[in-house]
Amino acid sequence: MTAIRPFEVTHRGILAIAVPMTLAYLTTPLLGLVGMGVIGRLGDVALLGAVALGAVIFDFVFATFNFLRSGTTGLVAQALGADDRAEIQATFYRALIVAFVVGLGVILLSHPILTVALAALGGSPAVQAATTEYYSVRVFSTPFALANYVMLGWLIGLGRSTLGLFLQTFLNGLNIVLNIVFVLGLGWGIAGSAWGTTIGEAVTAILGLTLVVSRLDRAHRPSLAQILDRTQIIRMVAVNRDIMIRSFSLLFAFGFFASRGAKMGDVVLAANAVLMNFFLVGGYFLDGFAAAAEQYAGRAIGARYKPAFLRSMKLTLGWGYVLATIAALCFWFGGPYLIDAMTVNPAVRETARHYLFWTALTPLAGVLAFEMDGIFIGATWSDDMRNMMLLSVVLYLAVWAVAEPLWGAHGLWLAMIVFLSARGFTLAWRCRARTRAAFA
């Protein structure tokens, strides 16, 4: 049996991971806000809708394979807790191989993926044409984006959040600059936004690999046999399979939300797209502490040290609720100004204001889910993550089926709030039993 390896969990330690990762994650929705704002300045509702649908498609693709980030974090953190330095590196190489294979597969299947996505999401002919133009360029970013997922997950697992902050900030900063230059400067339209994102992912992947590989400990470099170890590969596949199902279910919920908005017209679709960027800001605002929960929970599982596990859960949840309250207040009071900054279309502005209340509730409804996700990812309790997500999706659809016919888009937003809340409460319910079993 693995020896118990005690370690301390403090506010300072949590913040040392959470603050850099919060800043890093916040640059991602900032990219979405700038991208939406840049396209919004063109004044074409169809282009705004295309950005929204294009984002949903790539959210499906990338979140389906988000296990390359989250699965890597949990496995690396547990190897760190067990002080298995060779396995730390072996996990990195295994995940990187998968990232490039999957990325190339998405490129090869790009046409059928787009065809199915457009059929499922709907939208007007103008929106679908612009979405096709955007997708046809951005799909080539996939291998690089997934490699960036691996590097970020590996760094979080080791608690090296400062380097993760640098790479994430570099990625999104470069994307923002290129989007502005290509769309507004060179007049490339929606294709310019796609090119900016693709080039940004590729440059960051090359830079990240250079920095990470140069920091690997040569004294504990794994052999090819260890990297391709059958037992570890089966374990990674099992964890990744469950996280993939969970991630796909999550993106189904968001895709369904976008699809229902599209059926209500281009204005509602565009307004919901603007407001969902607020939700993403709130989510990434909370994800820094979820990242801290991943690292400490995984390390505690690897070290077999229950006190560290319980304290990390207590501290990350406490900080999460504080930040969720701040985010909700910022959205409520600052939302109208952000809406005006993101679009010049009067109809979209008015509609977005009409549903702003729901967006302000999303951080409070989702905070427990974000923090529980971090705990379960770090502990690699992926089967429960999968099951509780599927249960929450069923509840989401049940509420939607009743609420939308009664209240329209308000009913759709209500279903989303219920979905976010259900994820958190169901995971918290399962956490007790899993904790008892893990440290028995």
TrEMBL record:
- Kindly state which keywords UniProt assigns to this record, in alphabetical order: Membrane, Transmembrane, Transmembrane helix
Cellular localisation: Membrane
The UniProt entry lists membrane topology as: Multi-pass membrane protein
Where does it primarily localize? membrane
Could you tell me which InterPro entries the record lists for this protein?
Answer: DinF-like (IPR044644), MATE_fam (IPR002528)
Q: Does the keyword Signal apply?
A: no
Q: Which Pfam families match?
A: MatE (PF01554)
Q: Which residues form a coiled coil?
A: none
- Superkingdom is Bacteria
Question: Where are its TM segments located?
Answer: 12-39, 45-68, 95-120, 140-158, 170-188, 194-213, 243-262, 274-294, 315-335, 355-376, 388-407, 413-431
What is this protein identified as?
MATE family efflux transporter
Q: Which organism is it from?
A: Kaistia terrae
